[in-house]
Amino acid sequence: MKINEYVETLAREGELLAGAAEQAGTDAPVPTCPPWRVTDLLRHTGAVHRWATGYVADSQVEPLPFPEAPELSGPELLGWFREGHGTLVDTLAHAPDDVLCWTFLPTAPPSPLAFWARRQAHETTVHRFDAEAAQGIAFSPVTPEFAEDGVDELLTGFHARPRSRVRTEEPRVLRIRAIDTGAAWTVHLSREPARAVRGDTADRVDCEVTGEAAWLYAALWNRHPLMGPGVTGDVALARLWSETAGI
């Protein structure tokens, strides 16, 4: 995906998140992210938006402390969230393509600007799921292309880091397959961080998870249960994912 497509997605998803949060009410529980309430969701995501903005706007090349969110609620909190989201969208839309700044995933897009546009588009989309869960409605759809990209970021980026808790005592192999886009990932699990390889390799597979990219996206981010007819083989690996893959 292109940078402008990520920024457009970020703009849309932030508006959807704010709208769902407003409808749910800031005191509503967030069932996909217990024990959060909508207040916690808005404070977290709003702080993340400001944190990301700081890197790009100031060409910050060293890690920054995570900002504290204000003790606001109700309309004031929603206004604070919308302000930070708008600033992030504007910063990414107008930043120079060659801006240099800090990034944090081992498999990043080709530039820092692409990294932050991608990361914040997915950050905001996943938390939009949370806001809609608090509202008690079905998740608004995402495109198969965007969902596939989000699965790739999660598998080859987040869970390649040392802090990932998805580990097995003995080597095991998990296959993820998107039936609508044709994408596949072969995930090697062990006592070390997961090693995800793009494609359908010849490795023996212990468990396979198959579904449309949008379902995989939500399920692998633990916003839907990772179970059902699309999970075959050793389902204990799917349970392990659900229990340990939280970011």
Structural features, described:
Helix 1 runs antiparallel to helix 3, helix 2 packs parallel to helix 3 and helix 2 packs antiparallel against helix 4. The chain has 247 residues and is an alpha+beta fold. The model has no long low-confidence stretch (mean pLDDT 96). It is built from 7 helices and 5 strands. A 5-stranded mixed beta sheet has the order 3-2-1-4-5. It is 48% helix and 10% strand.
Quick overview of this protein structure:
The protein has helices at residues 3-24, 38-57, 74-94, 112-135, 144-156, 213-220, 235-244, and strands spanning 172-178, 184-189, 195-198, 207-211, 231-233.
Strand content: 5-15%
How does the major sheet shape up?
5 strands, mixed
The helix tally amounts to 7
N-C termini distance: 23 Å
Mean pLDDT over the full residue set: 96
Secondary structure: elements and pairs:
Elements: H1 3-24, H2 38-57, H3 74-94, H4 112-135, H5 144-156, E1 172-178, E2 184-189, E3 195-198, E4 207-211, H6 213-220, E5 231-233, H7 235-244
Parallel strand pairs: 1-4
Antiparallel strand pairs: 1-2, 2-3, 4-5
Any key phrases for this structure?
alpha+beta, five-stranded mixed sheet, globular, about 250 residues
